[in-house]
Every structure is written in C-alpha cells, then in structure tokens.
Amino acid sequence: MYNVSMRKLLFPLWCSFFVAALLVASCASVSDNSDNYVKVISLKGDPKTGYQWVYIGSESGKVAFIGSKYEPRIGDRYLIGPGGDYLFSFRGLEKGRDRLGFEYRRGWQQDDIAQSKTVDVVVDGDLNVIEI
Q: How far does the chain reach from its first CA to its final CA, in angstroms?
C-alpha cells in the first residue's frame, strides 16, 4: 500500500522534471545567429555627475536601435567618480551609410547639452553594422 501511494505521488513529479529537462534541452540547442549583426558603440561617461549619454537618432534609418546600458569600470567601482561606458546596441536594417547622433546631457535639462557626438556607420550586404 505504501509503494502504490508513493508511485502516485512521485509519478507527476517525475513527469514534470522530464518535461522541464526536455524544454531546457530544446532551448539550449537553438542558436540565434542574429547576434552577428549587432554593433555596440561605447561612449565614456559618469552618471554620478548627473550627465548621461542619450541616443537621439539616425539620419537615414538604416539601423535599428536595440537598447543601451551603463557598465562601470571594473576595479574602480569604489572610487569616487570613476566613470564607465555607455553601451548602445544597433542592428542593421538596410544596406548603406548612416550617421548616429548622441548627446551627453542631464535628463532634467534638455537644453543643456554638455557634449554631442556623431558616429558614422555602414551597413553591409549581410546587414552587419560597421563603424567608420
């Protein structure tokens, strides 16, 4: 009697582990080559000053903005104002040249731009974004 109830209890648990293992294995085997098309542009800055790099757009729309993040410099995180890198990710949409615009400004002061920068890129036939 003990064995029968234990089997009834463990069978659904075993099935859920089996299904989860199959799901993880199928997800792990799927490879996405789309990362080959992503270009990361790095701009140095320090958010502790109140300033941050902001992507303002592209001239011709040949690239798509994926997202951005800030990474502090490794080993300097306990120093006051060590800064770091703002990383902006882009994906090619269409072959051709494009110019990307960035501004270093405080979020609450839209008019006070400390620095602006443009980055020229080329999107090749495979939609790789190449900084020039």
A: 75
Encode pLDDT of 31-88 as tens digits: 333 444 689 999 999 888 889 999 999 999 999 999 999 998 876 556 666 789 999 9
pLDDT in tens, 8-28: 554 554 444 333 333 333 332
Three-state DSSP at 66 gives strand
| Phi–psi pair at 11, nearest 5 degrees | -60, -50
Distance (Å) of CA 112 to CA 32, 103, 118: 41, 10, 17
Domain 33-131's class? mainly beta
Sign of the torsion angle spanned by Cα atoms 8, 14, 18, 21: positive
- Amino acid identity of residue 95, one-letter, is K
Q: Hey, where are the domains in the chain?
A: 1-30, 33-131
Amino acid, single-letter form, for residue 13: L
Query: What is d(CA 58, CA 120) in angstroms, rounded to the nearest whole number?
Result: 10
CA angle at 68 for the pair 62 and 71, rounded to the nearest 5°? 140
